[in-house]
Design a protein that fits this description.
0% strand; HTH-type_TetR-like_transc_reg (chains A, B, C, D); 2 domains; elongated; Homeodomain-like_sf (chains A, B, C, D); DNA-binding; homotetramer; Arc Repressor Mutant, subunit A; transcription regulation (chains A, B, C, D); mainly alpha
DNA sequence: GATGAATGAGTGTTCATTCAT
DNA sequence: TATGAATGAACACTCATTCAT
């Protein structure tokens, strides 16, 4: 489970990168680049299908249509491919585009747009997020990774809350970091339950209802003035 | 990660029990009962120390000071012992005693007491909760178990919210179930991060601050009238 | 190659034992003892046939007629079985019985008996000695083992030389340790070449000639007085 | 371990060459010659550092700064490079220059010079000699190679002994070949222990003491008349 | 000649589960 | 019931060798 929330304000947070050890010399030839890419793609597919623990390296190489040994030209082990998979998805996960509301100053609108962007990104990468949750429970390296990712969101949101407090929009009695932890966490749990945990056959949650509930609770919690 | 919140009101929720298949005939002899109990106790210890996946059955039997084969007299496999372990801890986890505020009608006081009780129970069983999170990621049976446990809390809290709405204390625009999912989730994430995830060396969160933040946000979110 | 020579005199040398790490809990049941013994016997056979490096664990278990996994009940790896094999042969190798000449004082006779006993023991365990040479080249633990074994012989012989010097039988200008190193080494090379290295089809060296040559050179080197 | 001794007399022994199969067409171009030389040099370095078995071909090509595939332009496998390495060192090993004492007839002086030359050559190539010992234990081809090299020395020395017997300097009761085997072996063991086996941190043996001990024992063994 | 990515056979090791005693 | 030795399937990983550029 991670603890995150949309970027409300600016926030040039340092992106949580995969551990150094996971970075290898990139392939020099074009052919190498192709094979590596095929392996990463195959790994994501197999991981999402079978889970991290049940995924066998041979399944990945089979899926990538290359020999078992070729795997080790690019990765030292399962962890490393996973790191590569996450790294590739990271951009889309960390900066859920939300240029839409750039023009407005209405905090509620900004908040809603931010939540929507976050939830959309989560939904887009739902299987990967579920995977990350699983791995974080099993591999300390990825627990760390997940923590850093969550912290990035939390700090960004805390800055947003502090800003709103300064503008007199949010309750000043509240500690921005604690509140951010709680509210960011709230959104991420909802996202996890709605998208990552949901079984295929289940009836999906109404996305818009999700966005509006979460936004309303968040605004209320901070005591946005006299709305609705 | 689970999604729970203290019981605010009544709530004779059906307790989420371990799957039927896990219930065996109890041992007939006294010696048998003793061995079984030793195994369950040992299993909890080993699970909490090594995690579910890394726990070896032989570690458990060694800890329980009995032979490897004896394990199978009482359990069919690792899952079963874990079910037994959880079953044993369930009472304490599901009904965090909170007789204290019985007398009052002040919703805020009730809410706070409820949150405190929940967080205390979580803290008491932190390692077990962490374990449950881990297993839920790996064994569908326990994902189910965890879901049912969370749902029990969510429904209970939803009833509480509906009740407050009826009494005019809570914002009537809000859907009780959705709000309960979000707010119960919020509390459980906070608990997970503070107690289950925390490394031993980390400086602990201030417990009282945790209770009050969570309670204030929850009250605000529901728009409790004119307090503080 | 080891560097050894028969015990000439007394010498209650500390026997070179296998490293601690190689000592495990002995099997408790009789059946366990039987299996373990079968494995050690099989290991010796396979090692002597295929060499240490080419010996596969499965060959050993197959030879011992047990499952692959059973190996690990008694040994952690190939090294450990080998240690067990050597330990078992050690007694015979280190103390080549030579009570025969107890009665005499004639240094030449004692020397000859001693050489004969050493060479006989070497011949008896020729394959094992060849194995030890091989392993010592590859596994530092066994290089160490071999060194200690050689040192035991060298020191014992050095004591013998010093004694003869004191009795005026051996050249006093010679450093006993250096001489022992050289002469013990000389005998062991001869043994290695004659017994360990020899291909089956080769015509065997004449054993008696070997004994007498080695003894005569040794005696000459120490300048035993006026014989032959 | 090899069994050798300095050339005492003439001795146009047939030099033990690497197996025929190892001789390839030399590279035609100059670039080819350079690459090949780089590979042989790199191989010697890697072999001496890691040992034959642990040396990976890619380590060698990396050290030689060429691609993995280029190796096979010049050698068919690991054995072949090793053969090339040994071939290159052979000259220095087989004919340890000893022109110094050419003028004298004193057998003792000749013997000593011969031993000194041998031990110096061994010391110069200690790592390579250790390597040869290792490989000889593992690859029959090189066991053969080592044997031939040792035999060359032994025969040369046997001729020297026979010559001394003819001149009345050495004990005529002794079989020259047997004695040569024993005494040549004695010197080679000493060299192996002192130079090949010695750990870097160990205090080195006193070289002059080594030479004089070995020479004295050798002379005594052959019963050189009335010296010292 | 040189390159370096691709290949894939081969084996040590773990540990849940069984079953003879 | 209790014991603990025996079982064997399952899988990651290495590295010499090939071969398309």
């Amino acid at each position: 489970m991670d603890t995150t929330v949309p970027e409300e304000i600016d926030g040039e947070t340092a992106p949580p990168v995969a551990p150094r050890s996971y970075l290898r010399e990139p392939p020099t030839t074009q052919r190498g680049a192709r094979t590596r890419a095929a392996l990463v793609k195959a790994a994501r597919k197999v991981f999402e299908r079978d889970g991290y623990l049940d995924a066998r390296l041979t399944d990945i190489t089979k899926e990538a249509q290359c020999a078992a040994g070729s795997f080790y030209t690019y990765f030292a082990n399962k962890e490393e491919v996973l790191a590569a998979v996450l790294l590739e998805a990271q951009e889309d996960m960390l900066h859920p585009g939300m240029r839409r509301v750039q023009g407005t100053d209405d905090p509620y609108a900004v908040l809603e747009a931010s939540n929507r962007a976050y939830l959309e990104a989560y939904r887009r990468n739902a299987k990967l997020m579920a995977l990350l949750e699983q791995v974080a429970q099993v591999e300390p390296e990825f627990r760390e990774f997940r923590s850093r990712r969550a912290d990035a969101f939390i700090r960004r949101n805390a800055r947003g809350i502090a800003d709103l407090q300064a503008r007199g929009v949010a309750d000043r009695e509240i500690d921005p970091m604690m509140a951010s932890r709680a509210l960011s966490g709230m959104v991420s749990v909802m996202a996890y339950n709605a998208f990552a945990l949901a079984e295929p056959q289940e009836e999906a949650v109404d996305f818009e209802e999700l966005v509006s509930t979460v936004t309303r609770l968040w605004a209320n919690a901070l005591r946005f003035p006299g709305h609705r």
